[in-house]
Amino acid sequence: MAIKVFVPKDATACSLGADEVAAALGAQLGARVELVRTGSRGLFWLEPLVEVATPTGRIGYGPVGVADVAGLIAAGLLSGGKHPLCIGPVEEHAWLKSQQRLTFARVGIVDPASVDDYVTHGGYQGLARALAMSPADIVKAVSDSGLRGRGGAAFPTGIKWKTVLDQTAPQKYVTCNADEGDSGTFADRMLMEGDPLTLVEGMTIAGLAVGATQGYIYCRVEYPEAIAALKTAIAAAHAAGYLGASVRGSGKRFELGVRVGAGAYICGEETSMLESLEGRRGEVRVRPPLPAIKGLFGAPTIVNNVISLASVPVILERGADFYKNFGVGRSLGTIPLQLAGNLKRGGLVERAFGVSLREILEVYGGGSASGRPIRAVQIGGPLGAYVPASQFDTPLDYESLAAVGALLGHGGIVAFDDTVDMARMARYAFEFCAIESCGKCTPCRIGSSRGVNVIDSLLAGDRPAEQRRLLDELCETMIQGSLCGLGGMAPFPVQSALKHFPEDFAPRGRH
Is residue 109 part of a domain? Predict the structure, then answer.
């Protein structure tokens, strides 16, 4: 019987040579092994991470290059032999063992293309329970769990679903916003590539909950591996009867398709995404009506992000009480935190809400890659506030971060050491907004460009007191007057940089 060897097919692992390592293993081991391409465990500094199934569990080796393959085989790779690249039993690795993986429980473990493997590892148990429940009871379970949107707005998922359920309409939709565009974020991509059937299952449960028969996953074009994995998983689920005219013989219909966006950041905003799905230019809609009442093609529509929907199966499988026992206050459950920037150990950490930022940076991130002090951390993407070192003991939950003027957003954490120029980072926030604005509202379209000019004038020493006053007024105008979060949040990094790092905004002359 062939021994199973696991090599990630995750985009990060592949960018570091996983495809070449897999090819070398296949060429040198041949029929002795069954080569399984999985997702990534999220330990990016160890990618490509090769694992081998042994009687005592999966033994890991990493980071493995093509030049290492022959030596690994000679050292007894297939029996978990000792080698300088061996990290021991993967499940016992301290970085993984201390996490609380609910949504990412199968990522890096299962074959993403196999329904059988998914079911073997506990998949579709949530759907089985949902099929035995009424729509109202499914919605109640999601509401009772305390699940809030993981895309950034943190709106209670159950309220959205109940609003759609309460609408009387011949057609309803479930849409997944997989237009992951924030810098330093990759949780959506990792899940879609490594365990797409969790998302498929979550969307199917959502359809049963509100009476929707059609779902769409809106994924950005920059994610070709994720798009391919989703399409393969959907076809496999359909063939196994988990999608289609009668889901598992229940008589309830749910179909699912993938739609590819052109990569506009604004389409991460839910109404812009709906416009794009309908074949129009991605542009913010004026609300009301809300998408839950009048969304895709004018029908009641659930709009949730990947992690929100992928959190649903475990809630239905193990119950609302199980899920809400994780977390603190009104921030319940777990959150996938993505570690990027100037850190020794980048990757994905899933922990219950309430873990401190310091623990994430020091215990998981290992401190800065440069060895210099971490000066600032941006949480929540390019529109997130900058958190100074004096606030690193802040718990990572929605309310605690809001109390210090920050936001959790999609859980991206980007670290900067003490060489960072915070005035330039503030300028980038406006520059980014100017490039990505859909142009529909004046505060965002004009304000972002003016913000770049004002910061340039401030740094050039051109009437600095006046420029600072203009900058404050401009930020307030954008926050209060923009139609969506792009213009409304672009000032957050600017205001936080001004507050915590005022010395970086001293006039320095024109460049």
Answer: no
* Residue 54, domain member (yes or no): yes
Q: What CA–CA distance (Å, rounded) separates 193 from 180?
A: 13
Structure tokens at 452: 């770049």
Residue 267 structure tokens: 């389409």
Tokens of 332: 């319940």
Query: Residue 121 is part of which domain span?
Result: 115-323
- Is 255 found in the same domain as 159? yes
> Cα–Cα distance between 178 and 192 in angstroms, integer?
9
Pairing of strands 347-352, 331-332: unpaired
What's the start-to-end Cα distance of the chain, in Å? Answer: 67
Which residues fall within 8 angstroms of residue 372, CB to CB, at 6 or more apart?
Answer: 417, 418, 419
- Structural domains of the chain, count: 4
Q: Is the pTM of this model over 0.90?
A: yes
- Helix (H) or strand (E) run with residue 347 in it: strand 347-352
Q: Are 364 and 339 in contact (CB under 8 A)?
A: yes
CA dihedral 130, 132, 137, 143 (to 10 degrees): -20
d(CA 157, CA 165): 12
CATH of the domain at 216: 3.40.50.11540
262 and 306 together in one domain: yes
- Going 51 to 53 to 59 to 65, the CA torsion angle's sign is negative
Q: Are 26 and 35 in contact (CB under 8 A)?
A: yes
Tens of each residue's pLDDT in the chain, 511 residues: 899 999 999 999 999 999 999 999 999 999 999 999 999 999 999 999 999 999 999 999 999 999 999 999 999 999 999 999 999 999 999 999 999 999 999 999 999 999 999 999 999 999 999 999 999 999 999 999 999 999 877 899 999 999 999 999 999 999 999 999 888 999 999 999 999 999 999 999 999 999 999 999 999 999 999 999 999 999 999 999 999 999 999 999 999 999 999 988 889 889 999 999 999 999 999 889 999 999 999 999 999 999 999 999 999 999 999 999 999 999 999 999 999 999 999 999 999 999 999 999 999 999 999 999 999 999 998 889 999 999 999 999 999 999 999 999 999 999 999 999 999 999 999 998 888 888 888 988 998 999 999 999 999 889 989 989 999 999 999 999 988 888 888 899 999 999 999 999 998 765 4
